[in-house]
């Protein structure tokens, strides 16, 4: 008898028809369209993240060459040859040299400092604009993806309520499944938005550090050109940095420590 009861219970047990694919099939073309939009947003966000990260790392690695080799050259033209032809630093140098040559054709109508400063500022702005390309897309995805997912949830709940009304049953098993499936779209929207926001903030902070280095380099170029090559920043290599740290450590160790005690000398008379 127990065996018969178990068999009857097994036959009467409801089959689980809930899941992501079931929710998408019930949602129809609208659910699939919203899901496709979210997938495009996610793929675009990760593409921009990796491409911009590679571009930023390339510029930061080139900055080491600028600090170690560029300022060792006798002239700006000679130093420019040590930089990559397509680098941001080479662009600043070329624009500075071009602005210096162009100013000689203007006479005294415009001061050289103002002309060079304006030319370098335009060059910096173009580089920063190129680095910021794609970041508005990340900001848009971070701001709109949750609402796109919420739209899918609202449509899914609306369909579920209509089906429940047509069935004439409002039991928990009739409500929980369709509503839970509809909430999947909100979860997908959040999964798309959170990485986009994190990537935007991280790339933006790295762009600010690059902008600071570009501004410092352009200031050094302006000072070098205005002084006819007399003013240039100190070149610090890895060897010189280690030597300076070693000498500072040696000087600190050789310096007598003052403990605030008084040494008393006793003289013995014969």
From TrEMBL:
<keyword id="KW-0997">Cell inner membrane</keyword>
<keyword id="KW-0813">Transport</keyword>
<keyword id="KW-0653">Protein transport</keyword>
<keyword id="KW-0472">Membrane</keyword>
<protein>
    <recommendedName>
        <fullName>Biopolymer transport protein ExbB</fullName>
    </recommendedName>
</protein>
<comment type="similarity">
    <text>Belongs to the exbB/tolQ family.</text>
</comment>
<keyword id="KW-1133">Transmembrane helix</keyword>
<dbReference type="InterPro" id="IPR050790">
    <property type="entry name" value="ExbB/TolQ_transport"/>
</dbReference>
<feature type="transmembrane region" description="Helical">
    <location>
        <begin position="29"/>
        <end position="50"/>
    </location>
</feature>
<dbReference type="GO" id="GO:0017038">
    <property type="term" value="P:protein import"/>
</dbReference>
<feature type="transmembrane region" description="Helical">
    <location>
        <begin position="137"/>
        <end position="162"/>
    </location>
</feature>
<comment type="subunit">
    <text>The accessory proteins ExbB and ExbD seem to form a complex with TonB.</text>
</comment>
<keyword id="KW-0812">Transmembrane</keyword>
<dbReference type="InterPro" id="IPR002898">
    <property type="entry name" value="MotA_ExbB_proton_chnl"/>
</dbReference>
<feature type="domain" description="MotA/TolQ/ExbB proton channel">
    <location>
        <begin position="108"/>
        <end position="214"/>
    </location>
</feature>
<feature type="region of interest" description="Disordered">
    <location>
        <begin position="248"/>
        <end position="270"/>
    </location>
</feature>
<feature type="transmembrane region" description="Helical">
    <location>
        <begin position="182"/>
        <end position="203"/>
    </location>
</feature>
<keyword id="KW-1003">Cell membrane</keyword>
<comment type="function">
    <text>Involved in the TonB-dependent energy-dependent transport of various receptor-bound substrates. Protects ExbD from proteolytic degradation and functionally stabilizes TonB.</text>
</comment>
<dbReference type="GO" id="GO:0005886">
    <property type="term" value="C:plasma membrane"/>
</dbReference>
<dbReference type="Pfam" id="PF01618">
    <property type="entry name" value="MotA_ExbB"/>
</dbReference>
């Amino acid at each position: 008898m127990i065996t018969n009861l178990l068999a009857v219970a097994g036959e009467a047990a409801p089959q689980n028809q809930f899941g992501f694919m079931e929710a998408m099939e019930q949602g129809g073309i609208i659910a699939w369209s919203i899901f496709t939009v979210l997938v495009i947003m996610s793929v675009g966000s990760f593409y921009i993240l990796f491409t911009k990260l590679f571009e930023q790392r390339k510029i930061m690695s080139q900055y080491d060459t600028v600090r170690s080799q560029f300022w060792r050259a006798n002239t700006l033209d000679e130093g420019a040859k040590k930089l990559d032809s397509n680098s941001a630093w080479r662009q600043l140098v070329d624009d500075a040299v071009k602005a210096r040559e162009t100013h000689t054709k203007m006479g005294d109508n415009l001061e050289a400092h103002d002309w060079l400063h304006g030319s370098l500022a335009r060059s910096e702005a173009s580089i920063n604009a190129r680095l910021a390309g794609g970041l508005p897309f990340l900001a848009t995805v971070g701001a709109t993806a949750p609402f796109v997912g919420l739209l899918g949830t609202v449509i899914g709940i609306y369909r579920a309520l209509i089906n429940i009304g047509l069935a004439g049953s409002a039991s928990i098993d009739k409500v929980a499944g369709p509503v839970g499936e509809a909430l999947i779209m909100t979860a997908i929207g959040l999964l798309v938005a959170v990485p986009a926001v994190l990537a935007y903030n991280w790339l933006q902070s790295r762009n600010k550090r690059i902008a600071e280095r570009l501004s410092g380099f352009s200031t050094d170029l302006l000072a070098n050109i205005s002084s006819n090559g007399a003013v240039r920043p100190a070149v610090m290599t890895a060897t010189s940095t280690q030597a300076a740290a070693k000498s500072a450590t040696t000087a600190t160790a050789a310096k007598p420590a003052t403990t605030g005690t008084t040494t008393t000398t006793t003289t013995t008379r014969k």
